[in-house]
Amino acid sequence: MEARAVTRYIRISPRKARLVIDMIRSKPLTCARAILSNLNKKGARLVEKTLKSAAANAKVKKMDEEQLYIREIRADGGPMFKRYLPRAMGRADVVRKRTTHLSVVLAEQKVRTAPLQSESEKGESKALKSKKEKKEKQLVGAGR
Fold first, then answer.
1. If 0-12 CB within 10 Å is exposed, 13-18 middle and 19+ buried, where does residue 32 land?
2. 9 Ramachandran zone, left/alpha/beta (phi>0; psi -120 to 50)
3. What is the CATH number for 87?
4. Is 63 among the domain residues?
5. Whose CA is closest to 42, among 22, 74, 9, 19?
6. Is residue 137 part of a domain?
7. How many CA atoms lie less than 13 Å away from 44 in the CB half-sphere?
8. Within 13 Å, how many C-alpha atoms sit on residue 62's CB side?
9. Per residue in 105-117, pLDDT tens?
């Protein structure tokens, strides 16, 4: 199960937003919130807002908040506002005010347990270990 939130038309360039989201990608929700609250960037406040929205959506879906992690986070480019800046000799330069579409997907981490090995599998793993040890001895003996 997953919970998602999308914020569109954010007035920050996608490149600047990606600097922030790269720091929290695949991290647990609590860790990501701590990073964003201590980060001194404009994008951190905007990403934090979207992350809180995704967490609220997860709560509505009755997902365990302690097990949530950021499965996917993306900052895509939105439409650009075009402004003109006067330059010398009657020319004009275009200034692009970029916007961002931010999407966050949260999922629950599955608690993994170690699989039980049968007696035959244990014997196979010992045989593989002995082969590796023989190869290492041969390499050391050859002067490598």
1. buried
2. left
3. 3.90.470.10
4. yes
5. 19
6. no
7. 12
8. 0
9. 999 988 766 566 6
